[in-house]
Amino acid sequence: MINSIRICVKNYAKMTLNSAFKLHVKARTAEYPLSACKRFRVPDGKVDWKVEFKEYSPVSYTAPSVERNPPWADVDVTKTSSTLKYNEIDGKVNRKSFTGVYEVRGNLPINPMGRTGVVCRGVLGKWGPNHAADPIVTRWKRDNKKTLIQHKKTRKPILQFVAIQRKDNKQWAIPGGMVDADEKVSVTLKREFSEETLNSLDANAEEKRKIHNQIKNLFKHGTVVYKGYVDDPRNTDNAWMETVAVNFHDDSGGSVGRLPLSAGDDAGAVRWMDVGRELTLYASHEELLKKTAEIHSAHW
Predict the structure, then answer these.
(1) Integer CA distances (angstroms), 76 to 120, 137, 258, in order
(2) What is the C-alpha to C-alpha distance for residues 74 and 93, in angstroms, rounded to an integer?
(3) Handedness of CA 80, 83, 89, 91 (dihedral sign)
(4) DSSP state letter for 38
(5) In whole angstroms, what is the distance from residue 13 CA to residue 40 CA?
(6) Which three-class secondary structure state does DSSP give residue 205?
(7) What's residue 212's pLDDT?
(8) Which residues contact 235 (CB under 8 A, 6 or more apart)?
(9) What is the pTM of this model?
(10) Residues 102-122: tens digit of each pLDDT
(11) Residue 3 class from Cβ within 10 Å (0-12 exposed, 13-18 middle, 19+ buried)?
(12) Burial of 105 from C-beta contacts in 10 A (0-12 / 13-18 / 19+)
């Protein structure tokens, strides 16, 4: 459930990512991230499960960090008789997918968007959907006189968003993270933004209080930009990423727009970045920023 977040319904029916995303572009990279694992090559025309692919022989890979069975990971259902309640709320774990009911074969969930060239979980902890939340915090780009800056070609005002540079692959991204078991998405959004861009994990009690007071008003209301499956390099045939991306816009630039950004947790760096089509970001984050720009009639 998403609390205190209004849904932008005007274009909600159109909130699907582009066709290239549906073909698994980043989810079919030659080398699986943070490993030496080479994916089995899946041509564009063979991604869909409905298309026959007799030669398909995906590589099996589960990262050592997941195999150690940490608290955030599921049991390995390929090595035990344990069964999980797919397509429903399983205890505190949400195994429902935004895509609808997904297929389960031999106690293994099947990626609803098609083949990836890798089976098992990779670096993902959960079988099936792994739910994340992405807070897209924006402000208008202004000059020294606080006048909105327009792009020379489109003549539209330029948005800026808080971007982090991931430590694992050095790519720039929206500062999101995984939704903890039994955690509300609204809580995840605020927590991830505070930890990754304001370094709240290393803050003392007084500093944490100040951070909370500075962002509480902005995070009371947001616009859902997208919720669903995302094309992510960590995806496999049996585990995949889904997200709720919410835009929190500081229209006047007087709240979060004035915060002293400080990288923390999984972020190596953090800064305000201009929104535009020239962006090269992690996973499907360019598409999420494009939709955010459309909502604000901003430059893209």
Answers:
(1) 9, 37, 46
(2) 10
(3) negative
(4) B
(5) 34
(6) helix
(7) 72
(8) 24, 27, 111, 116, 122, 124, 241
(9) 0.85
(10) 999 999 999 999 999 999 999
(11) exposed
(12) exposed
Query: How far, in Å, CA of 62 to CA of 35, rounded?
Result: 10
Cα distance between residue 161 and residue 174, in whole Å? 8
Distances (CA, A) of 120 to 32, 59, 117, 133, 293: 12, 9, 11, 23, 36
Question: Which among 15, 12, 25, 22 has a CA at the least distance from the CA of 282?
Answer: 25
Contact indicator for 84, 69 with CB cutoff of 8 Å: no
CA distances from 113 to 100, 102, 134, 189 (A): 11, 10, 21, 25
Cα–Cα distances (Å) from 57 to 51, 67, 143, 291, in that order, read 15, 22, 55, 36
User: Which tokens go with 78?
Assistant: 């390929």
Per the structure block, which two tokens stand in for 298?
A: 């901003």
User: Do residues 59 and 36 lie in contact, with contact meaning Cβ atoms separated by under 8 Å?
Assistant: no
User: In the structure encoding, which two tokens stand for residue 254, read together?
Assistant: 């007087």
Min mean pLDDT across 64-73, 153-162, 182-191 is at 182-191
**Helix 205-215 with 185-197: angle, nearest 10 deg:** 120
DSSP H helical ranges for 166-235: 185-197, 205-215
Which residue reads 């947001």 in tokens?
A: 222
* Sign, Cα dihedral of 110, 111, 116, 122: negative
Residue 170: partners with Cβ closer than 8 Å, 6 or more residues away: 268
